[in-house]
């Protein structure tokens, strides 16, 4: 169930999405409120699970992780034990930035960030050694056109 948010909540969330390191005073000034109400709203939105965490966004290429692959996975296995092992494997692999279960012909899509094609192959070999997979297709992203963590409010 979606949280009930008013316009001030949305403004606060917008500011936090842009830069969560801003002081409460800065946020309050930008949203037209004062520090205490802004703090109370942030605390409430944390308690409601609207704000799940605050983090730093790093530049992957600056860290030498220049290759981004989208990995399409089809499986013939649908038993609970296989799925548990597969999901555990994905969660333990730091290269996997995102993983989604899909409707349609493809069962899962992964976003994987690695140094290069050789590093992707090492990831791939480790993945298929852990779980049986029917078909894997890896698509190399040639250019990142848009990437954001900012949700439309």
TrEMBL record:
Keywords: DNA-binding, Transcription, Transcription regulation
Any one GO biological process: regulation of DNA-templated transcription
PANTHER family in the record: DNA-BINDING TRANSCRIPTIONAL ACTIVATOR DECR (PTHR30154:SF17), LEUCINE-RESPONSIVE REGULATORY PROTEIN (PTHR30154)
Protein known as: Lrp/AsnC family transcriptional regulator
UniProt KW Transcription keyword: yes
Pfam families: AsnC_trans_reg, HTH_AsnC-type
UniProt GO cellular component terms: cytosol
GO function terms (MF aspect): sequence-specific DNA binding
Residues covered by the HTH asnC-type domain: 5-66
InterPro entries for this protein: ArsR-like_HTH, AsnC-type_HTH_dom, Dimeric_a/b-barrel, Tscrpt_reg_AsnC-like, Tscrpt_reg_AsnC/Lrp_C, Tscrpt_reg_HTH_AsnC-type_CS, WH-like_DNA-bd_sf, WH_DNA-bd_sf
Keyword set includes Kinase: no
Classification via PROSITE patterns: HTH_ASNC_1 (PS00519), HTH_ASNC_2 (PS50956)
């Amino acid at each position: 169930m979606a949280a009930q948010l008013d316009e001030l909540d949305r403004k606060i969330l917008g500011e936090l999405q842009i830069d969560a390191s801003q002081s409460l005073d800065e946020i309050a000034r930008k949203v037209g409120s004062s520090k205490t109400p802004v703090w109370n709203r942030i605390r409430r939105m944390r308690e409601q699970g609207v704000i799940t965490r605050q983090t730093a966004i790093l530049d992957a290429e600056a860290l030498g992780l220049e290759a981004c692959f989208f990995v399409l996975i089809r499986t013939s296995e649908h038993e609970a034990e296989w799925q548990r092992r597969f999901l555990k494997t994905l969660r333990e692999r730091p290269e996997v930035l995102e993983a989604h279960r899909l409707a349609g012909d493809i069962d899962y899509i992964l976003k994987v960030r690695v140094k290069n094609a050789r590093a992707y192959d090492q990831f791939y070999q480790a993945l298929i050694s852990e779980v049986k997979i029917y078909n894997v297709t890896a698509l190399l992203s040639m250019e990142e056109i848009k990437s954001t963590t900012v949700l439309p409010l």
